[in-house]
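Q: Predict the assembly, please.
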Amino acid sequence: MLRLAIPNKGRLHDDARSLLADAGLEVRASSERALVASLGGEFEAIFVRAQDIPEFVADGAADAGITGWDLVSESGRPLESRLDLGFGRCRLVVAAKDDGSVRSIAEIPDGTRIATVFPQLTQRFFAAAGKRVELVPVSGAVEIAPHLGIADVIVDLTSTGSTLRVNGLREIGNVLESTAHLVVAGPASGRAPVGERDRTLRELVDALGSVLAARGQRYLMANVPRTRLDEVKQILPGISGPTVIDVMNGGSKVAVHAVCPASGIYRTINALKAIGAEGILVTRIERLLA
Ligand SMILES: Nc1ncnc2c1ncn2[C@@H]1O[C@H](COP(=O)(O)OP(=O)(O)OP(=O)(O)O)[C@@H](O)[C@H]1O
Ligand SMILES: O=P(O)(O)OC[C@H]1O[C@H](OP(=O)(O)OP(=O)(O)O)[C@H](O)[C@@H]1O
Ligand SMILES: [Mg+2]
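A: Predicted assembly structure:
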């Protein structure tokens, strides 16, 4: 049995669950509040706090975990990423009061008090910048600290920037970029997965990777005039060019099938229509294996 640690709530919970479900690993829990659930096959999920996942994976309480790269880095545990999952994208940034005098890292005076939930990363960042600062550890709502006078500067996560903005703060430095990753114990831990366990993990990585790869692509089918196939090849470059299929009673038309980037599908459809394509059909892809 392979045990996967998954965030039980918060920002990463829904995306982690839907990624697993799309890969065929649906949570089979007796109740919404169950903390252990079968994922089918040889997988079991434990639902724990995102912050605790690096510790649990490093200790061997779970074989793998889905959590933020920021939390993995902060933990300092010897973990290894097996897959960047792409969601939970955010940045750990240094921010100061918008109406204050500090507008860059260089302008931060020694002795400045910095509030953060990420003391290790913050310490390392300012040490590397040659600054002696005083850390003020907090466990959340960091953005309020400068207004309470308990810190001058904060180090916190941001994605849209709206929390900083509404709290009158300005970003002045970048500490780390983060997304959710599938992590396992690294070689230095002495707990790295080997043998059968490693083989099962590789299958999991392939399954999740194929779901992620499929999300950005669409499968497109269209009937096009045989005489315009050269243009079709320009419009639908595809992985190995479009598949061209004869259509029974299709007359001068042939069917073309291709995998196309979802982001360009609007333009692709218009280009196909312009060369006389008919019966255009676009579908989602569940998995894409290279
Ligand atoms: N604004 C954001 N945009 C995108 N991802 C984020 C954002 N904030 C946090 N994350 C990611 O989600 C992870 C977990 O954050 P979340 O807020 O869910 O946890 P938490 O603050 O510990 O939970 P809770 O607030 O429920 O106690 C972070 O470590 C980070 O990787
Ligand atoms: O740049 P933005 O899009 O505004 O996002 C940034 C906010 O998101 C996170 O908090 P979250 O909403 O997870 O609340 P929390 O403090 O309860 O964790 C983070 O700690 C910031 O406060
Ligand atoms: Mg949060």
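The domain at 217-284 is CATH 3.30.70.120 (Alpha-Beta Plaits). The mean pLDDT is 94.
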